[in-house]
Amino acid sequence: MIIVLAEGRTEYDFIKQLFLPYFARHEIQVKTTIVKTGRASYRGGVSKYKFIRDHLLDLINSKNLVTMMFDLLGFPSDIPGFSNNQSTSDPLEKAINIESALLDDLNFPNFIPNLIVHEFESLLFSDLQKFSGIFNDSSVRNLIKQYSNFKTPEYVNHNKKPSVRIEKACSTYDKAVHGSQLAKNISLNIIRQECQHFNNWLTKLENYNEVNVNK
Q: What is the bridge-based pairing of β-strands 2-6 and 30-34?
């Protein structure tokens, strides 16, 4: 079984709608839960690493494979190794550095850390044509033009977050309503093709289960 600790409701819905059917085809059960922060759990966003750490430890003790889906942007700055993460401007390297720090802090064989580069909306740049039918053509063209300046969805930022780009181009965009719907329309396979770090995460989950199933 894979247990995914989700940052908020959108990540939770993403896991439910895309991960569950994908891994079910491989006869792997997936469960997800939203991190406990002492406030409304659907809101997402975590101010202190302690909330994440405590919840992860509870899940890790179950002996199931535990992973996480949190944004790189806004991840708590009090995490181990954060002060060592300022030497690179490459977002993939930043995520890898933080994930390595998490592994150093939570050194358990059944834990695979993961951060979304830069944030959930980055994944939606994997196929902007899927915005058609939900948002008007000029909004979609606007996003496609912006994306032409970046080599992959995981590099869409440059002082303007992916979510801000989408919200400004598509005024009716609502993450809670459209986020997982768009991701589902895009498909897990396309997101994997376009997002290297995201694909590496899923590959680790697949490889872990293959190794442990075959023991």
A: parallel
